[in-house]
Design a protein that fits this description.
With 239 residues, this protein is mostly helical. 84% of the residues lie in helices and 0% in strands. It contains 7 helices and no strands. Helix 2 packs antiparallel against helix 3, helix 4 packs antiparallel against helix 5 and helix 5 runs antiparallel to helix 6 (187-219). The relative contact order is 0.14. Homodimer. It comes from Marinibactrum halimedae. Its main location: cytoplasm. Residues 25-112, 129-213 form the PhoU domain.
Length: 239
C-alpha cells in the first residue's frame, strides 16, 4: 500500500483543514455508494419505495458537492498549498465532481426502476442487470477504499475492472437487442433496462476517473487518457 506524506504545518488548523477535507469526501463517497447500491437493488427487485428514497438522497449529495467545493476554494485562498497538499486539494475537487455525477446516474437507475414498477412488468429475470450491477458496486467500494488508504494498487484494480464492465455492458446490450427483436411487445420494458445498464456503465467510468485521480494524488502522475500498459510502465519508473 502506498502512503501519502502530507506536509505537517505549524498551523494545527491547516492540518485539521486537510484532514477534514479527506473525511468529508469519504462521507460523501459513502452516501453515493449507498445510493448506487440502493438503486441497483430497487431496479433488480422492482422496489419502487426504495427507488424513491434514492431520489431523495440526491439533493443531499448535491449539497455535499457544494460544501466540498467551498472548502477546497477556502484552503487554496488561505493556505496556498504546494506539493502533496496541493495535489490533495485538487484531487478532492475533481473526485467530488465524479461522485456527484455517479449520484446522478444512480438517480437515473432509480427512475427506470419506478418506470418498470408503474408498467407492472418489473425487471426480474434480467441477469445482465444484476451482473453488471454487482461489478459496478465492487468498483465503487474499491475506489473509496483506495482513496481512504491512498492505495495505488487498489486504484489500478479499479481502472482495470472498468474495461471488464465495458465488455459486460456491450454483451448485455446485444442480448437485450436480440430479445426485443424476438418479442416486440417487450420493447418498452427492455429499453428501460437498457437505459439503466447505460447508467451503470457510466458509474463505472466515473469510478475509473476517480482511480486516476488517486494515482495523481499519491504519485503525482497525470494518467488520464493513458492506456493501462502505459500507466503500469509509468508507475514502475516512479518511486
Amino acid at each position: 500500500m502506498d502512503k501519502l506524506h502530507l506536509d505537517q504545518h505549524i498551523s494545527q488548523q491547516y492540518n485539521a483543514d486537510l484532514e477534514d477535507l479527506r473525511t468529508e469526501l469519504l462521507e460523501m463517497g459513502g452516501m453515493v455508494e449507498e445510493q448506487v447500491r440502493d438503486a441497483i437493488t430497487a431496479i433488480s427487485n422492482a422496489d419502487g419505495e426504495l427507488a424513491e428514497r434514492v431520489l431523495v438522497v440526491e439533493d443531499e449529495v448535491d449539497q455535499r458537492e457544494i460544501a466540498l467545493d467551498e472548502h477546497c476554494t477556502l484552503i487554496l485562498a488561505r493556505r496556498q498549498p504546494a506539493a502533496s497538499d496541493l495535489r490533495m486539494v485538487m484531487a478532492v475537487s475533481k473526485i467530488t465532481r465524479d461522485l456527484e455525477r455517479m449520484g446522478d446516474e444512480a438517480q437515473k437507475v432509480a427512475r427506470m426502476a419506478i418506470a418498470l414498477v408503474e408498467d407492472g412488468s418489473g425487471s426480474q429475470g434480467y441477469v445482465e442487470l444484476r451482473h453488471l450491477g454487482n461489478s459496478v458496486q465492487t468498483m465503487v467500494h474499491q475506489m473509496l477504499d483506495a482513496f481512504a488508504r491512498f492505495d495505488v494498487e487498489t486504484a489500478m484494480n479499479v481502472a482495470k475492472e472498468d474495461k471488464q464492465v465495458d465488455r459486460e455492458y456491450r454483451s448485455a446490450t446485444r442480448e437485450l437487442m436480440t430479445y426485443m427483436m424476438e418479442d416486440p411487445r417487450s420493447i418498452s420494458r427492455v429499453m428501460n433496462v437498457m437505459w439503466a445498464l447505460r447508467s451503470l456503465e457510466r458509474i463505472g467510468d466515473h469510478a475509473r476517473n476517480i482511480a486516476e485521480h488517486i494515482i495523481y494524488l499519491v504519485k503525482g502522475l497525470d494518467v488520464r487518457h493513458t492506456s493501462m500498459k502505459e500507466i503500469e510502465k509509468q508507475l514502475r519508473e516512479r518511486p
